[in-house]
Specification:
By secondary structure, this protein is an alpha/beta fold. Helix content is 52%, strand content 19%. It starts with a strand and ends with a helix.
Length: 190
């Protein structure tokens, strides 16, 4: 298949400048047209050689929608810098404690996606991350977390806060959860 540079950039979620960089580094096959233009040649062999990557961005409420967009842009930029081919960019609004998020289910069920990139582990899920990583690994897939927490104490505290939030949601209902959780966390800190 042959693409104009702008079409190829759009198809791969990159800028035209990035495509020119790839041309200069000979990462893509090119062909000159009669009029002096450039075409990118992509055959099935090239598509298979590139790993299909998806990015996953999540925020917990629609109040943070602008953060969702910037989070997604950062993930795509990271993937492009690594030379990955981003075939899917998933954005979702929902709690990390909710294990019935449709978009993440669809992403996990898509076997063509070999690498899923997230910014922080809690953007993907609050609990059971190691199980998900293990299952993806068994399928020859990978969950790539850009910003891993290196501080075990911070990680443990975040898990603790997540547990409290989860149980408060069950006990007090969704509207009062945030207020009660904040009160409980403040009491724990004192």
């Amino acid at each position: 298949m042959k693409y104009k540079i702008s079409q190829f950039a759009r198809k791969n979620n990159v800028t035209i400048r990035t495509v020119w960089n790839w041309i200069n580094l000979e990462k893509v096959k090119t062909e000159r047209t009669k009029t002096g233009g450039w075409l990118i040649i992509e055959d099935h062999e090239d598509v298979d050689r590139h790993t299909c990557v998806a990015t996953y961005a999540r925020v917990s409420s629609s109040e943070n929608k602008s953060n969702l967009d910037t989070q997604s842009e950062r993930l795509i930029s990271f993937a492009n810098a690594k030379g990955y081919k981003v075939v899917k960019s998933v954005k979702e609004i929902g709690s990390g404690l909710n294990d019935n998020r449709k978009k993440i289910h669809d992403l996990l069920n898509d076997d063509s996606i070999k690498i899923i990139i997230v910014e922080h582990k809690d953007r993907f899920c609050r609990f059971g991350l190691n199980y998900i990583k293990l299952l993806l690994e068994k399928q020859g897939r990978e969950l790539l977390i850009i910003n891993e927490v290196n501080d075990d104490k911070e990680d443990l505290m975040q898990d603790f806060v997540s547990i409290i939030t989860s149980f408060c949601a069950r006990v007090y209902g969704k509207r009062r959860t945030k207020r009660n959780t904040e009160k409980l966390i403040k009491e724990l800190n004192n």
